[in-house]
Amino acid sequence: MKKAVLLSGGVDSICLTYGILPDIAYTVDYGQTVADREIYVSKYICNELNIEHKIIKVNCKELGSGTLANCEKSNISPSEEWWPYRNQLLITFASMQSIKDSVTEIYLASVKSDNFHKDGTEVFYKLINNLTNYQEGNVNIICPTLKFFSHELIHKYSVPLELISMAHSCHISNLACGKCSGCIKQLRVRHELKIK
Ligand SMILES: [Zn+2]
C-alpha cells in the first residue's frame, strides 16, 4: 500500500510530510500565482527527506478567484485567497496521478484554522473520502491534522526548525509579501516557536 502526500511547501504540509514520510509527495501547479516558490520549497523538502517528488501541472487560473489567481475575489469568498473547489480540485488531480503510481492513500494537511472554508472541514474530508472510495481505485483521502493548529503540528511531529524555516505560505507572490493571511499565519507560527 503506497502513501502520497499533497505538499504545497507551507508549514502544515511540511509537518505532515515529515511526520508520515510518504512514498511520494505531489505538488500541484494549478495556475496559482505562487506555484514556482511552492515547487522550489517542496523539491527541497523531498530532497532532504529522500522522498520521491512529482509535480502535477494543470493550469486552472482562468477558473480561480482572489489573490492566488491574481484576480477579484468572488462575492461568496470567505477570504481573500479562497479559490472555488480548490481542495476538491487538488484531490482529484492527486487521485488521478495516484492511479498511475499505485497509491491508495493520499494525505492532506488542513488544520484547525482552515475550517472557515468548507473544504477545510471534517465534514468535507468525510464526504470526499466516501466519494473516492466509492470510485475505481478505492483511494483513501486522509487528513490527520484537522484538530491541530500549525504550531501544534510542529510539536506533534517534532519537525526540525530548519525545514519549517523553508516554508512558503504567501498567497500573493513568490517572494513573501509579509501582509497576506498566509504570511501572517507563518509569522504567528514563527513567533510561537521563537524563530526570528
Ligand atoms: Zn504574503
In short:
With 196 residues, this protein is of the alpha/beta class. The protein contains seven helices and five strands, in the order E-H-E-H-E-H-E-H-E-H-H-H.
CATH topology: Rossmann fold
Low-confidence stretches: none
Count up the domains.
1
Q: How helical, in percent, are the residues?
A: 25-40%
Structural class: alpha/beta
CA-based gyration radius: 16 Å
N→C terminal distance: 40 Å
Give the amount of beta strand, in percent. 5-15%
Task: Please identify the top-level CATH class.
Answer: Alpha Beta
Round the mean pLDDT to the nearest integer and report it. Answer: 94
Small-molecule components bound: zinc ion
How many DSSP-defined strands? Answer: 5
Main β-sheet, spatial strand arrangement: 3-2-1-4-5
Taken in chain order, the helices and strands follow as EHEHEHEHEHHH
CATH architecture: 3-Layer(aba) Sandwich
Tally of individual helices: 7
Shape: globular
Q: How many strands, which pairing sense, and closed or not: the largest β-sheet?
A: 5 strands, parallel
Q: Give the CATH superfamily.
A: HUPs
Question: Please, could you describe this protein's structure?
Answer:
There is one protein chain. This protein has 196 residues and is an alpha/beta fold. The protein contains 7 helices and 5 strands, in the order βαβαβαβαβααα. A 5-stranded parallel sheet has the order 3-2-1-4-5, with helices on both faces. The mean pLDDT is 94. The site of zinc ion (ZN) has 9 residues, from helix 7. Zinc ion binds at residues 170-172, 176-177, 179-180, 182-183.
